[in-house]
Amino acid sequence: MADPSESGTARCPGPSVQDYLDRDSRPVPAALRYDHNDHLGSEDVDIARFVSREWAEREMRQVWRRVWQFACLESEIPEVGDHEIYEIGDDSLIIVRTAPDEIRAFVNACLHRGRKLRTGGGNVAEFRCPFHGFAWNLDGTMQTPPCAWDFPHVTPEKFALPEAKVATWRGFVFINMDPYAESFDSYRGTFDDYYIWPLENRYKSLHIAKVLPCNWKVAQDAFIESFHVIATHPQMLPWLADANSQYDVTAGQPNWNRMINIQGAPSPHVADSVTEEDVLETFYYSRSFYAATQGRDLALPDGGELPAIPPGGTARQVLADRMREQLANSSDQDFSATSDSELLDAINYLLFPNFNPWGGAKSNIIYRFRPNGLDPDSCIAEILFMSSPPKSGGTPPPAKIRWVPDDLLFADIPELGLLGPVFDQDCENLPHVQQGLKTMRKPGITLSNYQESRIRHFNHTLDQWMNK
Question: 4 preceded by cis ω (within 30°)?
Answer without folding.
Answer: no
